[in-house]
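Homework help board

Subject: predicted structure for assignment chain

Our instructor gave us this sequence and asked us to write out the predicted structure in token form, then describe one feature. I got the tokens but I'm not sure how to describe them. Can anyone check?
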Amino acid sequence: MSMTDTQDLLAPIREQITEVDNQLLTLLAQRRGLTNQVAEAKIKMDKQVRDQQREEQLLVKLIKAGQAFGLDAHYVTQLFHVIIEDSVLNQQALLAERANPEHSQPLNRVAFLGNKGSYSYLATQKYFSRRAGELLEIGCQSFNEIIHKVESNQADYAVLPIENTSSGSINEVYDQLQHTSLSVIGELTHPIKHSLLVATDTEISKIKTLYAHPQVFAQCSHFLAELSNIEVKTCDSTSAAMMRVNELKSDSCAAIGSEAGGNLYGLHAIKSNLANQKENHSRFIVVARKAVKVPLQVPAKTTLVMSTVQKPGALVEALLVLRDNNINMTKLESRPITGNPWEEMFYLDVEGNVQDGPMQQALDELKAITRYLKVLGCYPTEEITPTKVAAASALQDS
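My token output:
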């Protein structure tokens, strides 16, 4: 059978698939609209955004219904986990917007590291896709410049990477938070997928120079160790690395960054999944000049900075305050205090809302036993844990 005959057979089938895909998109948009109506009702009824019992019941029904169509439980569960996560995040964004009308504006000026194609750029696009108003992107070359843009009212928000599952905390950002009056108003976790990006039709064996951000090199150290006679050149951002490779258009140079970002610069990937850890994610925070109020229906996280008195067990004593008030700590980071040798500032992320009783009690107790305590921000958490369906496998066999 000739290629022309094969194409003639595939063409009508592909047209039907395209038609079904368009129907799916229409239905997904319709479903999202209905979940926004649910959010409006929850505002009036003062109900929690998440009802995991309802989510589990929904998944069980969908798994049973899917079986009738020959769809396995895993496929249905994975698909609706994504749909439910989208629904929860959209509802949270709507509730947060209603609680903070002063933050709603027709134009969101957002500062981030690098230019189009950087991981911070992709995170910015992701976060503000759920927020009202147009997005004005302000690319910067350093964390200091990003913070200054917001402090001087040249930008409304900043998106800053704070930690990575492979390379750990980004200390420079913590140091910037120590000296700014800005508040943390949001967070998001973004998957980081490093690829080897080139501008020409070349091979890995021909690459002699690699461009990337220092954090990226740290996250791909195992891959770099496999290469020989490679010169590593650091850049201020992944987008700067991609721009450089695009300018050079040489068979012997490459950048490490996201494939999606590389496409914006005419680059293509010749090897993917370069990170030491295949499940590689970066957590970003969003900061602004004014703090936000988080409705009690929305799961919240609070970021604190504190210094303890200089005595044995002082930090343990502070952490016991959190335990005694049943507050879960998700992050503890220490950074040196500038000008005070051997003294440290501690950054804590805890699950809780500053408007809630236990958090208020904990903050009052911490103020009494620490030398310095400041709330850097209380904001909606965007870490949506998928609802588990214990009976999924049994349902599949029934």
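Reply (TA_rk): Your tokens look well-formed. For the description, you could write something like this. The chain has four domains: 10-100, 101-192+281-288, 195-271, 300-380. That's the kind of observation they're looking for.
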